[in-house]
Amino acid sequence: MSRRFCAVESAAVDDPLAGTATHAERNLLLAWPSAKWQRNLRHASDMPEEIVARLDALAEAGRRVNLIHRRGHPSHRHRLYLMPENRGFEVEREALPAFLTAFDNGESLARWESAPPTGSLLLCCTHGKKDKCCAKFGFAAYKALAAAVDAHALPFEIWESSHLGGCRLAASAILFPALRKYGRITEADARPLLEAEARGRPYLPCYRGDGHLSPVQQCAQHAALGWLEARERVAMPRLATEDGDDEARRLTFDWQDGAHVGRLVVRCRTDTVVRLDTCADLEGDGATPSPVWRAVSVEPLPPGEA
Description:
Elements: H1 6-12, E1 27-31, H2 49-60, E2 64-69, E3 77-83, E4 87-92, H3 96-104, E5 113-114, E6 120-125, H4 132-152, E7 156-161, E8 173-176, E9 180-182, H5 190-198, E10 207-210, H6 215-230, E11 238-244, E12 248-257, E13 260-275, E14 288-300
Parallel strand pairs: 1-2, 6-7
Antiparallel strand pairs: 1-3, 2-7, 3-4, 4-5, 6-8, 8-9, 9-10, 11-12, 12-13, 13-14
């Protein structure tokens, strides 16, 4: 058996994290025992065909469906979350078809509604049937994140998740409802990542980006955040303008930290990385060229200059 891992090789070729946070904004998260997950991110081996068909139809209509798991949750009573609506539900397995039908038809879900997440929801991919990196690195990160929440009373719900995209960036996680993605999370990153997010701040060492932004915007935002952090400015840069082409972009961001305000210009260019996308590539085509964005400069603009 190969001991190579796509996540290890991705880091070795300087495959960037920033700019890899593409994710659907509309999500349905369904608790299902992880031992039953199949390779498809929304299918389980003991899932009735009627439920499989309804979940596939929802996905086809544009609602991303992920399975989630947390030890101790009853196997036949399913916790569901709708994001970005930030709504929670408890549904017995036999009632799932009725729930999914009502949801698909836009009918009231009040009879199943329960509390929303207790704080932000953080999903960590542990989907080993999809990629062995998600089992090896993902589960260790999940345990560390869950332990940090318990030990320090941090305001998050931590769940295991099926495939979140970017297996080569394991351990991967996503934060709802903010839709921020993280990658290459180690056990040492767990507490500082959660403490940063508890303050409403991205944790830059593992930050892949904001899923509401395009890849180049994510890349540029990461660079702007790094510039501000190096100068001890606590601000979330807001995209103001963007111009350029498919190879080079110029993006400007406004920022404010109390009485201090400013504008940054970030220049990004495309690059090519020869990488493995998943561990399956080790047995298939091997590493292939992939385009990426990189920030090449960050400069403050004088007041009044655009």
